[in-house]
Each structure stands twice: as structure tokens, then as C-alpha cells.
Design a protein that fits this description.
The protein has 10 helices and 13 strands. By secondary structure, the protein is of the alpha/beta class. It has 3 domains: 83 residues, Winged helix-like DNA-binding domain superfamily/Winged helix DNA-binding domain (Arc Repressor Mutant, subunit A, Orthogonal Bundle); 99 residues, Periplasmic binding protein-like II (D-Maltodextrin-Binding Protein, domain 2, 3-Layer(aba) Sandwich); 99 residues, Periplasmic binding protein-like II (D-Maltodextrin-Binding Protein, domain 2), CATH 3.40.190. Strands 7, 8, 9, 10, 11 and 12 form a 6-stranded mixed beta sheet that branches. Strands 4-3-5-13-6 form a 5-stranded mixed beta sheet, with helices on both faces. Strand 8, helix 8 and strand 9 form a beta-alpha-beta unit. Helix 5 crosses helix 10. The chain starts with a helix and ends with a helix.
Length: 291
């Protein structure tokens, strides 16, 4: 079923006469008659009751006309939006913690490359505290942060997917032989701890007791450098899964027990007026997450 045929059909519906519809469409009457006949054959229903001077819609034809109008309106709106956003240019700055849920943001950027190729997306990897600070200063347009976070002054989109907290260890670590790591297991090992405030608070909750103490030998804000320390034997890094690819390395990720799961959101300040480039990105994000 082609949009062109739907337009023929709707013109005939409007004119109630194939000859007049053909004149307005600048096509021959036999062409329209053949297209309508093929359409009825494709649908397996009769759309028109044909008289000598005019035609009327059947009940199926009335329903199909209503749906066809919506299809054409949506198609025309989509084309208009694409043509409009295609000319939008500019830069957006996205500050992000290291999170596997960034995949949705990447999907949005890929989509935006098709609809608004002149918009450049800049990704700045940092921790959640810095995301909030730089967004307040106007340096970041958007931030990708791990939940929970205070979103009182922000608009936001919850990103799909989750990631499990666990421990990045060396293959020769006693923890590498475990299916999951408990608080008791960690208390016996040197630990490399994240410095991100929200993550620290969640991990403190996971410890389950104010008396539970870990032997923290180093801290990090980005996991890549922490993974180098783990590989060198400094300690085991508490982190999210899916950030460091351990294939072909001397590292292994072991989840925490009980399970601790991370969620993420894209946030931007409510009080700030969005640039055309930022609005295009939000549209792309909504398409990426199905919103």
C-alpha cells in the first residue's frame, strides 16, 4: 500500500467523483480507477458503492478513509519535521558518568545524525558530582547520572536497562573464585572505592551496618584508571558491570551478594531554555527510548 494510492483514494472521497478527482490530481481517470480497484483487492473489501454520477463509501470505506487521513497527516508531519531539523546546527555537551546505560544516548545520537546531521554531540566523561556542578555552570546541556539523584530542578528521561554492582578483581585474587562477593568477603581484601557521592551512599546502604568497615586503599572517579590499579595488584575495585571489557585481560567481574542494581537517567535543568540543537537531541532520545 503506497502513500500515493492513499492520496488518490482520499481525493476521490472528497470529490465523490473519479473524473473530478483525476482532474485535480492531474492523472488519468483510468489510472485512478485501476489504483482503487487494486486497493480494494489488496484489502479484500469494497470501499465504494459506485453510482452513475457519484460514488459513496461503504462502512469499510468510511473506516478506511478515517485511518488513511491519519496516515497521510502523520507522513506529512514527519517529512516536515525532518526537513526542519535537517537545517538545525549547533553543539550539545553531555556530561556522563561511566555507565552501560549510555547505550541509549548513543542510539539517540545515531538517530540524530540522520535527522539533524549538522548537530554535533560532545561527550565529556566525568563523575556525577561534576555533572551537576558543570550543568549548574552552564557548561553541560545534559547529564547522564546514576540513580538515585535529586531531580527536583531537572527534567529527565529514565534510561532503559540496568547494571549490577560488583567487584573488578584479578584472576589470581581469592575473590575471583567466588560466584558472588559478600560484605564479609570484601572485609578481608584491599578495596578501591568510587568517589561518586551517590554511589558511595548506595554502597554504604548495601554494607548493611554502620559497623561494617572496608579496607579502602585507593579511590577513583573513572573506572579505567581503577582497572589499571586492579591489574597491578593494588586492590579490588567496587564498580558497575559492563564498563570494563575483561576479555583477554587478567581481570574478572564478580557481582555483589545480595544483588545491588544501578539505574540511570538523562537530566537537564528545568529553568534553562533549550537551544534548537538540544531540542532535536531530546526528540532523538524520546525516539530511542520509545517515549
Amino acid at each position: 500500500m503506497e502513500l500515493r494510492v492513499l492520496r488518490y483514494f482520499l481525493m476521490v472521497v472528497a470529490e465523490r467523483n473519479i473524473s473530478r478527482a483525476a482532474e485535480k490530481l492531474h492523472v488519468s481517470q483510468p489510472t485512478i480507477s485501476r489504483q482503487l480497484s487494486d486497493l480494494e483487492t489488496e484489502l479484500g473489501v469494497t470501499l465504494f458503492e459506485r453510482g452513475q454520477r457519484s460514488i459513496t463509501l461503504t462502512r469499510a470505506g468510511e473506516y478506511f478513509a478515517s485511518q488513511a487521513r491519519q496516515i497521510i497527516e502523520l507522513a506529512d508531519k514527519t517529512v516536515a519535521n525532518v526537513q526542519h531539523t535537517h537545517d538545525v546546527s549547533g553543539n550539545i555537551m553531555i556530561g556522563s558518568a561511566e555507565l552501560p546505560m549510555m547505550a541509549s544516548v548513543v542510539a539517540a545520537i545515531t538517530h540524530m545524525r540522520q535527522t539533524a546531521p549538522k548537530v554535533v554531540a560532545n561527550i565529556y566523561s566525568t563523575d556525577a558530582d561534576d555533572v551537576h556542578a558543570r550543568m549548574a555552570a552552564g557548561f553541560f546541556d545534559f547529564g547522564v547520572v546514576l540513580e538515585p539523584t535529586d531531580k527536583t530542578d531537572y527534567d529527565f528521561i529514565n534510561l532503559p536497562g540496568t547494571s549490577s554492582w560488583g567487584v573488578l578483581v584479578r584472576d589470581d585474587s581469592p575473590l575471583a573464585q567466588l560466584e558472588a562477593v559478600t560484605v564479609h568477603d570484601l572485609q578481608k581484601q584491599p578495596v578501591i572505592m568510587t568517589r561518586q557521592h551517590g554511589s558511595v551512599e548506595r554502597l554504604r546502604g548495601w554494607l548493611g551496618s554502620s559497623n561494617a568497615q572496608l579496607q579502602v586503599v585507593a579511590t577513583y572517579n573513572l573506572l579505567y584508571n581503577a582497572s589499571i590499579m586492579v591489574s597491578a595488584g593494588v586492590g579490588s575495585a567496587i564498580c558497575l558491570d559492563g564498563i570494563i571489557n575483561t576479555t583477554g585481560t587478567n581481570l574478572r567481574f564478580v557481582p555483589l551478594a545480595p544483588e545491588l542494581v544501578g539505574y540511570a537517567s538523562l537530566i537537564w535543568p528545568k529553568a534553562r531554555q533549550l537551544s534548537p540543537a538540544a531540542r532535536v537531541f531530546i526528540d532523538a532520545m524520546m525516539a530511542a527510548v520509545g517515549g
